[in-house]
Structure formats: structure tokens, C-alpha cells
Amino acid sequence: MDESPGVVDLLGVLAYAELSAFLQMAGDASRFAPTVGERAALGELAVAEYAHFRLLRDRLSALGADPEAAMSPFVEAFDAWHTQTSPADWLQALVKAYVGVGIALDFYREAARHLDPSIADLVDEVLADEDRSEFVVERVRAAIEADPAAGGKLALWARRLVGEGLSQAQRVAAARPELAELLVEKAANDQAEISRLFARLTEEHGKRMAALGI
51, 139, 150, 152: most buried, per Cβ within 10 A? Predict the structure, then answer.
């Protein structure tokens, strides 16, 4: 296998992220969706997450890595995050699928910026969230329009999701230094680049919050 441990770690963490997102969204569709139509719509998004998982699993295999072994170091952190941020209702589930998952995945998108274009393109493909964004934004904005008080509650929920997501990313980075090195490879001794990195992450989060109207 020619790829560095950092690349295998990146694909492994993303593969488990997509698998756990599939399971979370499928469960939320069953527990919280207010109609059969909404259950089916969220289920379709969950299926898309599973397709992304398969792409990553297959690329790991093509690189000569064992997909299960590549994912296993990240199971505890992701499972703990999902447990700590279990939604209580439909709107919380939607915000988690958009804001909470998004902030964590932004870190891994940044890490992929330093890799071979074929890996970076794969990461961009599996992290694309246009359909999920449209689905969530439409429903959350409609709910806030109908009940403005819901916006404040969802803003608090979003802040909690981000805090837990950042803590999760820090735990992963501490446990897998090769993965952390991908993120800071070009910024290790460049405070300006580090500042730009966090500015990009903050900007993307701000865009999501603004899109939701919270």
C-alpha cells in the first residue's frame, strides 16, 4: 500500500462518518418524521449517505487497506458524539443532520486539500450536501416562520452540536496524529494559515446558520 497512514485514516474516518450518518438519519426518519412522505424523503438522504460510505470503503480496499480496520479507531468517538447529541424531535434531528455533521466534516474536507487530486475529488464528492441542505433548510425555515420562538431553541441546539463536534474532532486528532498532520501540514509554522483555516471553518458554519434563519 503506497498511501500514507494519514490518507487511510482520512478515508477511514469519513467512511465511518458516512455509515453512522446513514444509521442516524434512518433512525431519525423512523422516530421523528411527522408524515410518511417526510420519512421517505429523509430515508432517501440516508441512502445517499450509505452510497458515499460504499465509495469510501471501495477506495480503501483498492488502496490495499482493510476498511473495517481503517474505520475502527473512530467508532468510539463518533458513537459517543451521536449519543451525546441525540435529538429530541424532528427539528432537532434536521439541524443535527445539517449543522452538527457539517462542522465535523469541514475539518476532513480541509485535510483533503493537501492530498492527491484523486483523493481530494473523492472527498469532495462524498461530502457534497446540496440535497441534504435543501431538505433541511426548507423545513426548518418553514417551522421558524410558523413559530418564531423555535428559532432561539434551535440556535442553542446548534451551538451545542458544534461544541460537541469540535470536541469530537479534537479527540480524533489527538488519537490519530497522522490525520492531524494532514490538516496542519501547510499551516504548522504559519500562524496566518492557521487563522485562515479557522476563518474558513467559521465562515462555512455561519453560512449554514444563516441559511436556516437561526
Answer: 139
